[in-house]
Protein 1
Amino acid sequence: MQKATMTLTREPELSSPPRPDRTGRKSALTYKHRLSRLDVKLSPYLYISPFFVLFGVVGLFPLVYTFVVSLNKWNLLSGPGEWVGFDNYAAELNDPLFWNSLFNTMSIFLLSSIPQLIAATFIAAVLDQNLRAKTFWRMSVLIPYVVTPVAVALIFSNMFSEQNGMINHLLSFVGVDPVMWKTDVFPSHIAIASMVNWRWTGYNALILLAAMQSVPRDIHESAALDGAGFFRRFFSITLPSIRPTMIFVIITATIGGLQIFTEPRLYDATTPTPGGAHRQFQTTVLYLWEMAFQRQNFGKASAVAFILFIIIVAFGVLNFLISQRIATTDSRTDVKSAKRVLRRKAAADREEALAASTAGLPVDSPPSSTLPSGAKEPRS
Amino acid sequence: MKFSRRTKVGAAVACAASFALIATGCSSAGTGTSAGASPVELTVTTFGTMGMDALYAQYEASHPGITIKANNIDTGANAQTDAFTKIAAGSGLSDVLAVEEGWLGAIQNVSSQFTDLKAYGADSVKDRWVSWKVAQATDKDGRIIGYGTDIGPEGICYNSKAFAAAGLPTDRAAVATLLGGSGSTWDKYFAVGEQYQKATGKAWFDQSGFIWNSMVNQLPEGYYTKDGKLNVENNADLKSAWTKLAAANAAGLSAKQTQWDWNKGTSFTDGTFATFMCPGWMLGVVQGQVKTAGGDAVGATAGWDFADVFPGGAANWGGSFLTVPTQSKHPKEAAELATWLTDAKQEVAEFQTAGAFPSVTAAQTDPALAAGTGISAFFNDAPLASILSKRADGVKAQYKGPDDSTIQEKVFGPSTISLDQGVSGDKAWSDAMTLFNQLIVNK
């Protein structure tokens, strides 16, 4: 009733009298009004435009240019030749050396990312504890990241030297034969992965640590009160809470891992083919670099670059889909487990009531029966 | 990782922007004042050991207003990548750029990007070089794009201590005779090697790659025929040389060293191998490696000596040219510097510091060349100049095609390493042919 009368009385007030008044005000404010409207609508774009202009110049243009180059026969020194369409792509997809480089990239990527993420999570968990000299430990894990990859590669290259290297020397103490760190495929991948791990583990650990610290302490405390041990709390509280950060770390590690160049390039710089005498550890980026600047085939190199781009995008999409799936199954299980808990509680209450009735005690049945339905209501 | 890349890009952009400001600032100032005799800074890029470092100061002193900024790249292969990248980019090349014979073929394909030195007096000086050196630097339109620095006549470096241990003669004339003298062949060289290997159990040469280089360079036609056609598959000369090299490896003559590393030079001092392929410019490399390994680089205690003999006859490996890219802002001054650096007197000095044997005929016969130098002292006071002059006699220029260095490095490089690692000659050869078809024929 009240509502109806209010709308009825308001209606004429709004519709008829102010109309001429409004138009008059509008014409008086035209310029300023338009300016401020423009300001509101356009300025934000203007403010963010430097990024997009720069991106266009240093990101989009090279991308498009690379694509155009990849459709031509293009010599590094003498420039564009004839238009060949997608022939460069077809040739590369049939080139065993290209597939070799892709295999090496994947192998080094898996050997580096998986141990690296496990180690980083573990280190972050340790740093998350109440340690003495917290800042010291946290800065310490970041030090390898400060060292330039070139220096890292030179040091590791010496350490993994086959003839007088430190690693082989140490292995000889435990009776292991010298490993051909630079000649054999798998050992060389391990050596390069160890460089990547050494440099990036601490960095990822710090990112994960930041995520861990944002997990509310009271959850941990109440879990501890309920009797959950360190590992139980780590797997049931910490890990699920840092999942978004974990996904970010995994995606960046994937992109970096697929673009690895410096480490394999400098690991054995004496060979005529970059990435090992027989291309044992020639990664795809190294392969494309050799194709462009040593074999002088710019067209094919651009095609390789574009194929790599597509692979990385595919990996990104895959990661995204997986992470989304995790997120949805996650919420589903939440609801399910909540229902399960409530059902169990109801059953327990009923049992309790039953036991009480048989014992001849006064039964407090109404509240126990309403509890499940009442608790369910806000969720559904 | 993504973060770091972004910040790197950001930094690069910032740098580029500020650099652009500085650059434009500089260039506008430059055009304003360059009318007079303004100071000119010339950049020079060399590689390996070319022995020019001391000469720059001398040139600066005699040419007021000219300063030289020199950059030396460790190996020829790295210098090649550097030069190719900058040619492709269209900027960044030095005013004077050293080009190695092996990749001169690729440079000749884009010879228009290099200044025709005839515009700066090449015709008046071209008679100073041995004629084949000038022919190599002349493009198909008759322009001269480079001035010859050194040539690479090859002799045999040998370790006299290792020879003594095996009961072989140590005197350099006797070693030359032992290896066959003027009629030396690869068969003879490997036969003596087997004798040495049986006596000591040690390897005869450092690794197969350099032997292969020498064998190929000595052929009248290498990877290309004289008229510029690929000449690898079904090339009986190449195949027979390969068979000999494979047999030598099977006999355990190779020390399986990593070239340009040699266990950080140590292998030159501990008798890992007894002989070494030595074009003139390699003499400085040997000395440098011994120095790196902490050996005595001045006296003859390392035991290295140089014999006037080479298996299979006269051979030339490498040698370089000084070019002036058209990117240079001071082609006149740069050409003058290149002319001066390749003059007889300077080439003698380059030989004395680095052992780079002159391509200028007047320098080859200069008595100063024969005088004892620091590098001669390292090789047990061997008369390096007169030995190299004799080794240069009979050298024929081989036509080097545009993909010559790619075939050398990427087709046969892996297979010579395979030979060192014990792969059979046939397998290594067929691997090389597979690579040849992948990298060169179907490129």
Protein 2
Amino acid sequence: MTLNLSVKDQEMLKGAHGPATKMAMSILVRMAEVSGAKELLDISGAHIDSTVYIGDAGLEYAERLASLGAKVAVPTTLNVSGVDEHHWKEWAVPPLWAKQAHRQMVAYQSMGTIPTWTCAPYQTEMRPSFGQQIAWGESNAIVFANSVIGARTERYPDMFDVCCAITGRAPAIGLHLTENRAGKILLKLEGVSAELQASDDFYPVLGHYLGKISLDRIPVIEGMSIVPDDDQLKALGAAAASSGAVALFHMVGVTPEAPTVEAAFQGNSPEETIIVDMEILRQARRELTHADDARLDMVVLGSPHFSLAEYKTLAKLVEGKKKHKDVKFLVTSSRAMTQLAQQAGFLEAVQAFGAQITVDTCILTTPMLPKEIRFLMTNSAKFAYYAPGLLDKRIAFSSLADCVTSAVKGEIVRDETLWKG
Amino acid sequence: MEGLILIGKPVISGKASGIALVSREPLSFWGGYDWKSGEITDRRHPLSGENAKGKVLVVPFTRGSSTTTAVLLEAIREGTAPAAIVTTATDFFFALASVVAGELYEKSFPLIALSESDFGMIKTGDQVEVMEDGKLIVN
């Protein structure tokens, strides 16, 4: 199978559109060949994940493209940055790290991108539309765009997203194509109460299980008795894209490509049908907790970045309360969303509670937590999944309400009512 | 000694050799690989605590984060990356790291895709030689 390039693709490859476009196109073509694509297709939006500073190789890559004069060809949002430019000095971030991370931000901003600095670009005004062809990085954003919105992106890695943004092209493979978006396995919820389905901690738990059982097969979830909101679906997708390689899920009666089971499978039969009962969910929930006692140093929220609605819910939960003096309480979000939350009057209660807010970055990507903080609690399965390996911290998972109660009490408390057998 | 010969698909061609480090569990390098040392740090992964520097890493595919490529690129620059990676499916994330490392540092590494049944023939500790055409010699 050979890759057919358009005349313009060939011009870009030869350097007729400048050296940065040439470099981006040569990586794109090489990868299109690797993935067996027959052609490239036009995209009308991109999200660049490689904005996060990890080390000097990523920085050198960004600065190489920037120094060659790279400019994006389509509207392009930027993922979280390596550093919160305004608040990093309040934390344990080494100055050299902050400097390098800032250089990487500047490099990507110089390409004519939109500096959203968020891992939840689908909750900004740049949210894509149904059927739109896009090239997105960031696993949680990819699964949300594909599943909840019905936009079309493959599961693109860091550093490839920017090549698509610069050229305005992507390989015509995988989830860009209708036939590859059909469900493969069916998950039937059984004996899961509507109360549990309405609670925010159900979604990270289901997502954690979904990722593990699906691996890279497209799962279809049946048996919802309520319609979850965007933030619940965001938590589900983020969890599934952490414990597995899920880039698209269908939820019957909820997501746009799954009005019925038949539609979700595009008329095919499921390769496997799995009954998801309370026993399975309780086990998945246990796996998300990596701490064995009640000790608590810090609550971390906002993975993916907090939305306006989440700020509102938190403001209600903490109103008139004060966190324990020995517990830190951190919310991460984008600066735009935090600004909106302030204008909406949600930040006052959050700050009076004693919470700190970090914008643009993520505790998983910036070395902000001091060593003495060892016991974390979160409502995010993604945090719970990555914190032990990335941060070497113990972590407990529970609902947002439990996180608030625990922060007040100074130790981990978890309400088991909805999870009981 | 005549070794076992497995015919793989050279996703990225190249020559390398090393001791095999094998798992059936997919791996995310972000949160799963310390590029400063080469240690596998995903505490839920069976290879947790093993060092993959200079080894032939044998895992079915990457899981989770889209930052896996970036972490692997750092490891290549630092000299802590595996010598070669063997997977079951063509893994876009690993392949991109090799392509970009070639572009930036002229340091690509071989990436070979094997069939499910051949994949199961390699055991941790085996000496694996990766040939340009995707052939693996396993001892």
